[in-house]
Amino acid sequence: MQRYEGGAGVLIVLTACRFSPAASAVADAGPLQDSVEADPGDAAEDPDADLGVGLVDLRSAGHFAILGEAGISGITATVTGDLGASPVAATYITGFALTADSTNQFWRSAQVIGDVYAASDAPPTPTTLTVANADLQLAITDAASRPPDVTGLGSGELGGQTLAAGTYAFTGAAHVTTDLVLAGAPSAVWIFQVAGDLTMAAHARVLLSGGALASHVYWQVRGATTLAAMAHLEGVLLTETAFTGAAGASVHGRVLAQTFANVDGCTIVEPAP
C-alpha cells in the first residue's frame, strides 16, 4: 500500500490482470491508486453528470500495462501488468533483465508482475501484438472522435481543478502543475483530448474522488507525455508519441504508446476493470 498526503485522505486498492497469447489470467494485486474522499459539493455528485460519456473500447490493447511500438526502457522500474513491444524485437525492451520462458513466446522479469512480449518471440505472440497495436489505433481514433463537452478549459492548465465526468478538449498542450481531482461515481467517464503535449509537474497528482475508476479515465494525447519526478497519473494513456516518466513518477492505469515508452524509475500499475 502507498499513501499520498494531499487535500484529503488517500486509500490505495488495486486488482490487476495478466494476459498471454494463449489465455488471460489474474495477476497478483498491486497497490497504487490515488483517491480522495468525496465532497458533497463536488460537481460530479449529480448522478446525471456520469451518463453522457461512454467508455473507450481498448480491445486487446487493454490487456497490457505498457505498449511501446518503438521499444520500452525500464531501468529500476516496477510494473504490475503485461508489457508488449511491437513491431520491434525483445532487444528494444531494456532495463528489465529479461529471462525467456521455455516456450519462447514471452519473457519474465523480477521487476514485472506479469509477462513481457515482443515481436521477435515465438508464435502466436507476433500476431497478438500486431492486433494489439491495431486495437490501440482504434481506441485513439474513438477517443479523439468524441464531441467535447468543454474546450480549452483553463487555457490548458488542469492543476487545481475538480472536474466532473465529461470530454475535455485542448487545441494545444495541457498541463497538470498542481493536483487535479476527478470527482464522480464508478460509472463516470472522463476523456481528455490533447492536441499537443501533456506534462505533469513534479509532485503533481491526478486524484480520484467519489468512487471514480482509473479504468474510466482516458488521456488521448497527440504529442509527447512527460511526468516529472514524483508526479502521479490516474487513467489510460493513449499517446501517439513518446511517454517519459522521471524517477519516482507513477501511473495507476496504462501507458499505451505508439512510439517509445521510457518508464525508467517509474511505477506502473494497471487498474482494476
Structural notes for this entry:
The chain is 8% helix and 35% strand. It is globular. The chain has 273 residues and is mainly beta. The strands form five sheets. Strands 4, 6, 7, 11, 12, 13, 15, 18, 21, 23, 25 and 27 form a twelve-stranded parallel β-sheet that branches. It has a seven-stranded parallel β-sheet with strand order 8-5-26-24-22-19-16, with no helix packed on it. Strands 3-20-17-14 form a four-stranded parallel β-sheet, with no helix packed on it. It starts with 16 loop residues before the first strand and ends with a strand. It contains one helix and 27 strands. The chain has one helix spanning 125-145, and strands at residues 17-19, 24-26, 35-36, 64-68, 71-73, 78-80, 82-85, 93-94, 99-100, 107-108, 112-113, 116-118, 150-151, 162-163, 166-170, 174-176, 180-183, 190-194, 198-200, 206-209, 217-221, 225-227, 232-239, 243-245, 250-257, 260-262, 267-269. The chain has one domain.
What is the tally of helical segments?
1
Strand content: 25-35%
Helix content: under 10%
Q: Major sheet, described briefly?
A: 12 strands, parallel
Q: What is the total domain count?
A: 1
Write down the overall mean pLDDT: 87
The tally of strands reads 27
Helical/strand content category: mainly beta
Give helix and strand order, one letter per element, not per position. Answer: EEEEEEEEEEEEHEEEEEEEEEEEEEEE
- Shape designation: globular
Low-confidence stretches: 1-31, 37-51
Task: State the distance separating the first and last CA atoms.
Answer: 19 Å
